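Sequence only, no structure available. Ideas?
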Amino acid sequence: MKATGIVRRIDDLGRVVIPKEIRRTMRIREGDPLEIYTDREGEVIFKKYSPIGELNSFASQYAETMHKTCNLAVAVCDRDAVIACSGLPKKEYGEKPVSNDIEHIMESRGFYRYKEGDRKIFITEEATDSFVSCAMPIITAGDVTGCVISAAREESERPEAELEGKLVQTAAGFLGKQLET
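Reply:
I predicted one. Tokens follow.
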């Protein structure tokens, strides 16, 4: 654990203000859920809660199935990071923060498909070996909780566009419904 040197007091309603710099660095937005942990030494730890993280193994199995049956490189992410991938190197993508472009796709709440000649969008800022072929935000109870992404290394290896889009939209819809139950 890293000390920030910032000290805050608890107000009369039991609230603590998390400084803007920390919220920005940790990508904590207004309305984001935080889990609260305590330990034996009396530390209180706030951790961003990822509803889709609850489905981590399920999302991994879904991505792996899509890769094996349809030969799609698939990534599933929550609002901040890749939580599951198949057909992509886990070392480069697993638990890495999503790019700003992926955040914009999620904020748009709509389906994205790469068109030949468009600027390529990458899943993370560091990994640029594969670009986003199509993506669909995962929406749970009206809130964006993540995104399902199909990626390609080259334009020639992209599968039939309509089928790829339907598979990604189905996965996002299914994972969203799983989070509602």
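Residues 161-180 form the longest helix (20 residues).
Hope that gets you unstuck.
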